[in-house]
Amino acid sequence: MFFLATVGLAGTATSAAPDNEFLAAVAQAGISVDNPQQVIKVAKNVCSALDQGNSADSILSDITSQTDLTTNQAKTFIVNSVQAYCPERLS
Known about the structure:
60% of the residues lie in helices and 0% in strands. It is mainly alpha-helical and 91 residues long.
């Protein structure tokens, strides 16, 4: 089960469509979610962390140290987060 207290940054509000798409992508990746709203908040925090200059490796380290996700699952979570909430960050 995936639960993360925080990545340390506040998320931003968006419509339900990106949230639903994100949750579907996470589920498709085999990541089970106990608290969808908390997971969405963490996903949005990924974008905030990138905006503040944190590296993807740093974010990956935070997620893997604070959850029971494997490294591959955490990478997938980060990619799904970026695709849903800050696609301008895709490179």
